[in-house]
Amino acid sequence: SGLLTRLQTSAPTIRTLSSSNSFSQNIPSYLWKLGRLNHVAIAVPDLEKAQSLYKDVLGAQVSETVALPEHGVYTVFVELGNTKLELLHPLGEKSPIASFLQKNKTGGMHHICIEVDDIKAAMTELKKKKIRILSEEPKIGAHGKPVIFLHPKDCHGVLVELEQA
């Protein structure tokens, strides 16, 4: 009984997050809500090689290449079950991806995309909070839905795309 008592008193205390409201009480209520991570976008210098990596080497389901002239990119989506990767390649010399690849020759993570339930309300609220939005109005994105981009300097160095869910 002495050993059992010592084990019980010397066992580390394990704390778990309770499902109480204490955590969510600190979250202000908004007129809009963040949803799920829609995709992580990766700029690639060679779109065919990148498609082949995900399709032929890793065995992922990979979409066809789609040109988005308004955004100056070619896009390919890689399905991952819980989210997607968006492979981005420049479409024209004025493409923002072309300038990204000039600085990052081998490519790299370009932005993350998070769904929102009300993009207009999100824009209004974010402007009040001094978060810069890179366009005056939402543009139609690769999924045919309105999107906006938030300035990376206002988002800890990450370019954030918000997409209407």
TrEMBL record:
Annotated family: Belongs to the methylmalonyl-CoA epimerase family.
Keyword Metal-binding on entry: yes
Assigned EC number: 5.1.99.1
Domain VOC as annotated: residue spans: 36-165
Taxonomic placement: Eukaryota, Metazoa, Chordata, Craniata, Vertebrata
One Pfam match: Glyoxalase_4
Reaction it catalyzes: (R)-methylmalonyl-CoA = (S)-methylmalonyl-CoA
Coiled-coil ranges (or none): none
Enzyme class: isomerase
Metal-binding among keywords: yes
Full protein name: Methylmalonyl-CoA epimerase, mitochondrial
Single Gene Ontology BP annotation: L-methylmalonyl-CoA metabolic process
GO molecular function, one term: methylmalonyl-CoA epimerase activity
CDD domains: MMCE (cd07249)
Keywords (A to Z) from UniProt: Cobalt, Isomerase, Metal-binding
InterPro entries: Glyas_Bleomycin-R_OHBP_Dase (IPR029068), MeMalonyl-CoA_epimerase (IPR017515), MMCE/EMCE_epimerase (IPR051785), VOC_core (IPR037523)
Naturally occurring in which organism (per UniProt): Oceanodroma tethys
Function: Methylmalonyl-CoA epimerase involved in propionyl-CoA metabolism.
Gene: Mcee
Entry GO CC: mitochondrion
